[in-house]
Amino acid sequence: MTDTADRQGAEYAAPVEAPSVGEALSRARCSVGLSVDDVALQLKYSARQIDALEKGRYGELPESAFVRGMVRNYARLVKLDPEPLARQIAGSLAAPAAIDDAVPFRKPIPFSVPGRHVNLGYAVLSLGALAVMAAVVLWPGERATGSKLTFVAAGQAPAAAPAPSAAEGVPVAVVGTPLAAIAPLPVAPEPAAAPAAAALRHRITLRFDRAAWVEVRGGDGRILASEVNAAGTTRVLEGVPPFKLVIGNSRHVHLSYGERPIDLARHARLDVARLTLE
Fold first, then answer.
1. If pLDDT is split at 50, 70 and 90, which confidence band does 65 have?
2. For 222-270, what is the HEC assignment?
3. pTM assigned to the model
4. What is the mean pLDDT of the chain?
């Protein structure tokens, strides 16, 4: 009898095993009314990666640093403290390889320092090559024209050379028009002012009886809201339609478009409403 009672007491006193990181994230996701696809859309991961994280299939995910960052982002989305979960999952992941193993050779590359006489020889050869190139470029031009350079004293203008005639086969330069004679280009009239942006903006009002995740995207593609909203709060958004909305836990959310209430039950599936407001 005593042994049996001791064993039963030990069983009752055994600590309850804490849930894994994936289980904790999955429970928190369900509590705020999000699906795996909703989390993947919000965090910019694939649904396959979210499912692998929740079920502990870490081998299907990239390196450990990626998984820790993924856990932190997921925890913030579902309102959990990210650091304890990141430390918990670090023990389940393989440690990254040491940097010294990734770079096995660190020997410096030897560079020879030439002597001063070698540098002087290179300089002489370079000057000789430049002189030959200059002679090759300038000499044929002097033979073809047969002209010589003439120096003019300062303040003395050179004599005007006679203009060659068209019969000599030399093209005659066309004298340009003075800048003052050129008529200014017409200035294009400014376009008519676009209609005021405020006239095209519409208002969306969201009231939350319970915590719910909402994403609202405007007609220009910008995200106007993408977050979990606490119970008892109200969110007012303005933008240019059409609006695309994804609302989790939609049974506890009231939506108005301008002054018109919208029935989310008509657009909900598995308690997630998806709709477009024109």
1. confident
2. CEEEEEEECCCCEEEEEECCCEEEEEECHHHEEEEECCEEECHHHHEEC
3. 0.38
4. 73
